[in-house]
Amino acid sequence: MLIRHADPAQDAAACLEIYARYVDGSAASFEETVPSLNEFSQRIARISRTHAFLVAQDGERIAGYAYAGSHRERAAYRWTAETTVYLNPEYHRRGLGRALYAALLPLLERQGYRLLLAGITQPNPASVALHAAVGFEDVGVYRRAGWKAGAWRDVLWMARQLGPETSETQMPPAPGPPQRLPAPIEL
Ligand SMILES: CC(C)(COP(=O)(O)OP(=O)(O)OC[C@H]1O[C@@H](n2cnc3c(N)ncnc32)[C@H](O)[C@@H]1OP(=O)(O)O)[C@@H](O)C(=O)NCCC(=O)NCCS
């Protein structure tokens, strides 16, 4: 098993296959229509230009992926990113979510992000446990934030600070270019 940066052309189909089941069959994603392969490939390329998009590869198979994107567009949010992780169910509870985040979070910290947010449609004990395990804390629930899979859904937001904990009086530099793993991580 290894963790590496996604290749938009090579990995889009496998990542989309994983994602499609969460669009169609669950409220984990609030997207209602499975994106086209071309659109998904463009997403990987777009995200890779600003943040990072990592995949976990088991032999020839993609087992899952994790990435970060922007949270909101207003300037003062520029140190904040949103993270997401999706795995093929065959690979759940084998430490892969944790491993993907263990690779992703330091890249975002090095890039200059200071706050990570994850919006988790409830209930999702696996995602809550994963995010808690890597240092995210509950910050609040958007009640009935969206209608998905036949019901109103609450979204729990979890957050994790990055960078120095000391109080600052100077504005930190804006996040720089996306950071790369020096080499694929072998698990
Ligand atoms: C959420 C998800 C990525 C978790 O990844 P995972 O590889 O199964 O999680 P890990 O094996 O790395 O486990 C990380 C921690 O969460 C805990 N955990 C994982 N699944 C759990 C579950 N179903 N119930 C309770 N705890 C769980 C593990 O025990 C572990 O904690 P520990 O290390 O302190 O023992 C995976 O379940 C998934 O892909 N779910 C569907 C998609 C999804 O919901 N994505 C999140 C959208 S917000």
Describe this structure in a few short sentences.
By secondary structure, the protein is an alpha+beta fold.
Strand composition percent: 25-35%
Strand tally is: 8
Small molecules held by this entry: coenzyme A
CATH topology: Aminopeptidase
Please identify the top-level CATH class: Alpha Beta
Give me the side-by-side strand order of the main sheet.
6-7-5-4-3-2-1-8
Tell me the domain tally.
1
Regions with little confidence, pLDDT below 50 for 5+ residues: none
The CATH architecture assignment turns out to be 3-Layer(aba) Sandwich
For the report, how would you describe the main beta sheet? 8 strands, mixed
Q: How far apart lie the N and C ends? A: 5 Å
User: Radius of gyration over alpha carbons?
Assistant: 16 Å
CATH superfamily: Gcn5-related N-acetyltransferase (GNAT)
Please count the helical segments: 4
Broad structural category: alpha+beta
The average pLDDT is: 97
**Helix percent band:** 25-40%
